[in-house]
Specification:
The complex is a heterodimer of chains A (1027) and B (157). Chain A is built from 28 helices and 52 strands. By secondary structure, chain A is an alpha/beta fold. Chain A is globular, with a radius of gyration of 30 Å. In chain B, helix 2 crosses helix 5. Classes of the chains: A alpha/beta (1027), B alpha/beta (157).
Chain lengths: 1027, 157
């Protein structure tokens, strides 16, 4: 635990004495939400000391309050909490809670930041997080974490996985502070950790760069009195509904009405509350509400299948990766209605406290309908703290209060050395926030490259115990995961059962086995009870095994002496209605894990040297940006570009939505890349072969013209291979020269083409090949691009008539402003339904190009004679993706784009170590988003390259020389050439560095002479027998 | 199952239920099974998963041993052809199982008890479907007693 305790400690830094102009290898991250957390973890991995400053008592931010996340329905806390723990455990991240930045002096590379740190009134060094103080405290207050729906005590930890897990006293609620009596917490605290004498402290830290990630505040729904929020108890905000859904929330995950605790069966969602709302000065779209409402509907129906859900919406903005499919699925669920309408008023019915919604229907009639519960999908806005922070730091904000950035530099603020991530840079979802965070970390690392490693320390583990001669003593820890597991599996009897298994000396259940206090309990149990094998029955080992392995390592056990039983993803969540059977299955899974653990053996640690250079596949804007970022950090980079030109698809863009000159931006970047001494560009280059593993890849690229092959040795790969504009279908594209794609029109406008000079009517048709059954995704950029081009056309010729046929305008986030402007300037928008797309035909006589389509909002048909018809063609994956995917062993999604390791929290990583992803190869996105992503990929790649050697655990093949006949079968099946045969001794020899532990050899060896440590034949057979 | 089970866990269903051992490769099928979980897809509770690094890790002996110890069916699921994290482990597995199939036939194990599938990390729905189908086909075949009896006879003699 790295909680700062005093100012003297933080001031004594070697860099501070090295003079004001030398760079400091430390970074201050202001804001401990998921953005700040990601930036901190990346920076620490890249060799920088981090001060993570958070105003509330715990890090975690808004994401900690969410129940699930879209579009994967992952449990939010489950995926976040390992990151919280990683931060807490990282020796180079110092978490400073209850603090805010008060002043910053100095300049980029060397800042002095003054922090004001509020007292916690609990001594973090002494507190064990036992919770007795909270139990005994007689004073209650509304819980901020539960958005006022639940209560907390005057001394409290905001949530059970809080980091640091140390309670805080709220002096405004505490009787001692108010009346001078009580002190119950002090009386009961056995550790004497309560300290009423603490006062506010000033702390100074010396840092080279600052990242602002202060997050957002939800829109105050009381500002729209017509919806009755604050007056009617059954009108909730989206964030409050998250707490209702949460198993750890105020209703234990039951979807009930706050007024009477009765099940809410008929629920309405109202979209755009405090977003796209000029009357309230919010001209932007909050970017996440459409999807979170779809998620709420899914989850409400999961809790109670009988829930009738109605979503009153404007455009449905399903623009992100996987969003359209998610929305389609939700909108087709039985009992779910999506009604395009703006709700005028909500009235509470006396007696039942039902809510009467009055709305204007799609049939152009007024309707009234009663609901049990109404959820307002409130938008996001910068909080007062963020604005104050920006002012104190001299960082510019825009009219809405969001931090001012530019499309070419999406994570830089107006002040050099200060960067921004998360919603403070504009409304964004979690993956985009995480991406920005990694991107900001990369820019900070670039700035401070000379100081890397100057202030960091390495993590120390206690010496490992040799348990090879000991009888197995197994500890079993069973997670309830709130109610995720506990609601289905009978956890107490599972623990009883585990105690009966041979060699099990300890079994216990935990509310969350991944929480810090349970980790501490595991370590204690290992030490006190001489446990030498640990089994955790919880969620999937794919996300949590590394965390638990680290825990047992802290107790001096080798990480291989650990096994997991997946009783959540593969049990409680898939057998939700069969509690008995699920419990029996869980018992067998535990029994199998215990059987494997019993035979567990410790593996050797060894280290692999890292080739500290990178290969970037693709020389578009994303590839070049990532390459430059790495090169600026001092790592040599090869760029392999398949065409003869750098710049990629951006060569076809002329200017951005904000009017920036994209051509100039491309030119400037190409010049920087070409002149950089550490970057080698290979044009016309195609990847032929890729071998190796993280830290040591060996890739063969070949010239497309001459076929000349070249071998490149490198430590990481960044896939930035781009995407294409597809051919629009269903319109006379190609047959009539007046029909263009958006990119072609952009070129036409920029080059002042002949078509344009004559054009009086320009028609745009959106979704010409996207959001269809064949291509069930939104191409994300077309609506913004259409608005950009429409505005440009109006600017060039105010007399021109511009018509846009659309389904849902996807001008998410701050680009909503441009959409509003386009409407103001007279661009005419006609909404059509997906089942009735507009038609284009050429009149046989006049040769006029006629576009006919419905306008649902006006309830009539629009017919326009088009001089130019611009089609929003889909963004389609590269044809080469399948080949690259199989060569690099990284997956594609069902649309053919590359699939990241985790949609929410690992947006630029692949499951395969050392391979990263950015730009259009990942999916459709705008240039600024691609640039942020490229910087993020560089950050993730640099966290590998910053290390001289990677530490690995020897869970690889081993040969029992006595049994081996040297037949060579293992050598023949090994895909990595890791095995050679010693012809003299007639035995197989394994190269432990090259071996990946796949086990092909072990499955082929008939005498059983070669086996995998940690996954031995014996262990698998024991698991089978334990059934 | 001996007497080791604690009380509430011990109660066995009155009716016979197929018991299926599923070997899932870590990178594709296991991830697909996790996705079925996060998507809350419901499928029959008859499988007991053993996570392996690669389908190519599955020694034919594992399958035989599972049948000897009371499994009524075995599912081996790996990455789609070409997707193997270890380059070609799934091909290796496929060739190995083609051979094993004829051996199983010789031993009198009905076709359908041991099945091979490709499920990727993004195919939660397919995973649920595969498990449902395998469970149903094994249910139709009834309990697998052949190798269990063989083992018992061996133990007895």
């Amino acid at each position: 635990m790295a909680e700062a305790t005093g100012s003297t400690l933080l001031n004594e830094q070697p860099a501070a004495s090295a003079g004001p102009h030398s760079k400091v290898g430390a970074v201050l991250v202001a804001g401990g939400g998921v953005s700040g957390i990601q930036a901190s973890l990346d920076l620490a991995a890249m060799g920088f000391k981090v001060y993570l400053v958070e105003e509330s008592p715990s890090i975690g931010g808004r994401m900690a309050q969410l129940d699930k996340t879209f579009p994967t329905n992952d449990c939010s806390m489950c995926i976040l909490s390992p990151k919280l723990i990683d931060c807490a455990r990282n020796p180079n991240i110092e978490i400073i809670t209850r603090a805010r930045v008060d002043e910053v002096r100095g300049q980029a590379g060397n800042f002095t930041a003054v922090l004001l740190k509020k007292p916690r009134f609990v001594n973090a060094e002494k507190c064990t997080g036992c919770g007795i103080c909270q139990e005994k405290c007689p004073w209650k207050a509304d819980s901020e974490f539960d958005c006022g729906l639940g209560k907390r005590k005057a001394i409290y930890t905001p949530f059970s996985q809080a980091v640091p897990n140390v309670p805080v006293i709220d002096p405004e609620r505490c009787a001692y502070f108010l009346k001078g009596t009580c002190r119950a917490c002090e009386k009961f605290c056995e550790r004497g950790a309560i300290d009423f004498s603490q006062t506010e402290e000033k702390v100074e830290v010396q840092v080279g760069a600052i990242i602002l990630a202060p997050g957002y505040e939800p829109f105050d729904a009381a500002k729209k009195p017509e919806y009755g929020y604050g007056r009617y108890r059954n009108v909730l905000t989206g964030l409050q509904f998250e707490r209702i859904l949460s198993a750890a929330g105020p209703t234990g995950g039951e979807v009930v009405r706050p007024s009477d605790g009765r099940p809410a069966r008929k629920i309405a969602w109202i979209q755009c509350v405090g977003s796209r709302d000029a009357a309230h000065g919010r001209n932007y779209c909050s970017a996440v509400c459409c999807m979170y409402a779809a998620k709420h509907v899914t989850m409400a129906r999961e809790h109670d299948e009988g829930v009738q859900a109605t979503v009153f919406h404007n455009d449905v903005r399903s623009y992100g990766k996987g969003f359209e499919q998610y929305y389609r699925q939700v909108s087709h669920m039985p009992g779910v209605r999506y009604i395009r309408s703006i709700v005028s008023t909500i009235k509470e019915l006396p007696g039942t406290q039902g809510l009467l919604i009055r709305y204007w229907g799609e049939d152009n009639k007024a309707h009234e309908e009663e609901f049990d519960l109404v959820v307002l999908s409130v938008g996001m806005e910068p909080g007062p703290g963020s604005l104050e922070l920006a002012e104190k730091l001299g960082v510019e904000v825009d009219a809405n209060g969001f931090c001012r950035t530019s499309p070419s530099s999406p994570v830089s603020t107006s002040r050099p050395g200060i960067f921004v991530a998360g919603v403070f840079a504009g409304p964004a979802d979690i993956p985009q926030s995480v991406t920005m965070a990694s991107g900001a970390a990369s820019l900070a690392a670039q700035l401070l490259a000379d100081a890397r490693g100057g202030l960091t320390t390495t993590k120390e583990y206690p010496p490992e115990k040799d348990v090879s001669g000991e009888r197995p003593r197994i500890g079993v820890f069973i997670c309830r995961c709130g109610t995720n597991i506990g609601r289905v599996v009978d956890v107490p009897s599972l623990a009883d059962y585990a105690r009966t298994l041979p060699n099990v000396v300890h079994a216990e259940e935990n509310l969350f086995t991944c929480s810090i206090d349970t980790s501490r309990r595991i370590i204690e149990a290992i030490e006190q009870q001489g446990i030498n094998r640990v089994v955790v029955a919880a969620c999937t080992p794919r996300t949590h095994e590394p965390l638990f392995r680290d825990t047992i390592r802290q107790a001096g056990l080798n990480p291989t002496l650990f096994e997991m039983a997946n009783i959540r993803e593969q049990c409680s969540w898939v057998h939700m209605h069969e509690q008995e059977v699920a419990t029996r299955k869980a018992a067998e899974l535990v029994s199998m894990a215990v059987a494997r653990a019993r035979l567990g053996r410790q593996a050797l640690h060894f280290s692999l040297p890292v080739n500290r250079s990178a290969l970037v596949l693709g020389g578009g804007m994303a590839g070049m940006t990532a390459a430059l970022s790495l090169a600026e950090q001092g790592f040599p980079v090869h760029i392999a570009e398949k065409s003869d030109q750098l710049g990629g698809i951006a060569n076809r863009l002329r200017y951005s939505l904000d009017g920036e000159d994209v051509s100039a931006q491309v030119k400037a970047l190409v010049a920087r890349v070409e002149s950089h001494p550490l970057i080698t560009v290979h044009r016309n280059a195609e990847v032929r072969e890729a071998r190796g593993h993280v830290g040591n890849f060996s890739t063969v690229i070949a010239g497309r013209g001459d076929g000349q092959e070249r071998n490149i040795e490198h430590g990481v790969i960044i896939v930035a291979s781009g995407a294409n504009e597809g051919q629009p279908s269903g319109y006379p594209y190609g047959a009539d020269e007046r029909v263009l794609t958006l990119l072609e029109l952009e070129d036409e406008i920029a080059s002042g083409g002949a078509h344009l000079a004559r054009a009086r009517n320009v028609v745009f048709i959106q979704c010409a090949g996207s959001r269809s059954d064949d291509r069930p995704y939104c191409s994300r950029t077309c609506c913004r691009q259409t608005v950009k081009l429409a505005l440009r056309l109006k600017e060039l010729n105010p007399e021109i008539d511009v018509h846009v046929f659309y389904r849902d305008m996807m001008t998410y986030g701050l680009s909503e402003e441009s959409y509003r402007l386009a409407r103001e300037r007279g661009v005419r928008f006609h909404r059509y339904r997906p089942e009735a797309p507009p038609q284009a035909s050429v009149d046989a006589g006049s040769q006029a190009l006629l576009v006919t389509g419905e306008d649902c909002d006006l309830g009539r048909v629009a017919e326009v004679k088009a001089d130019i018809l611009a089609l929003a063609a889909p963004t389609i994956p590269n044809e080469d993706n399948a080949r690259l995917s199989s060569m690099l062993k990284v997956p594609l999604d069902s649309d053919g784009f590359f699939l990241e390791a985790h949609m929410k929290l690992r947006p630029v990583d692949f499951p395969r170590d050392g391979v990263f992803l950015c730009g259009l190869a990942h999916g459709p996105k705008s240039l600024d988003e691609a640039l942020a992503q490229a910087q993020a990929a560089a950050s993730r790649a640099a966290s590998v390259l910053a290390q001289e050697a990677l530490e690995a655990l020897g869970t690889v093949a081993e040969v029992q020389r006595r049994k081996c006949t040297g037949c060579g079968l293992c050598q023949a099946v090994c895909p990595f050439d890791a095995i050679t045969i010693d012809e003299e001794a007639k035995v197989a020899v394994v190269n432990g560095v090259v071996c990946k532990g796949c086990g092909a050899c072990a499955a082929a060896c008939w005498p059983g002479a070669i086996d995998i440590l940690g996954m031995s034949n014996e262990q698998v057979l024991a698991a089978i027998t334990a059934l | 199952m001996e007497e080791k089970h604690a009380q509430s866990v011990e109660e066995k269903p009155a009716q016979w239920e197929p018991r299926i051992v599923a070997f899932l490769c870590n990178w594709c099928s296991y991830a697909g099974a996790d996705l079925a979980g996060t998507s809350r897809l419901q499928y029959p509770p008859n499988t007991r998963t053993i996570r392996v690094p690669c389908a190519g890790r599955v020694n034919p002996l594992f399958i035989i041993r599972a049948l000897m110890h009371g499994a009524d069916g075995v599912l081996v699921s790996g990455c789609h052809p070409g997707d193997c994290h270890y380059l070609e482990g799934n091909y290796l597995a496929r060739r190995r199982f083609a051979l094993l199939k004829s051996l199983l036939e010789y031993l009198g194990i009905e076709e359908g008890r041991v099945q091979f599938a490709w499920v990727s990390a993004s195919e939660g729905g397919k995973f649920a479907q595969v498990v449902t189908e395998v469970t149903e086909s094994v249910r139709k075949l009834g309990p697998a007693q052949r190798l269990v009896r063989a083992r018992e006879q061996e133990v007895a003699s």
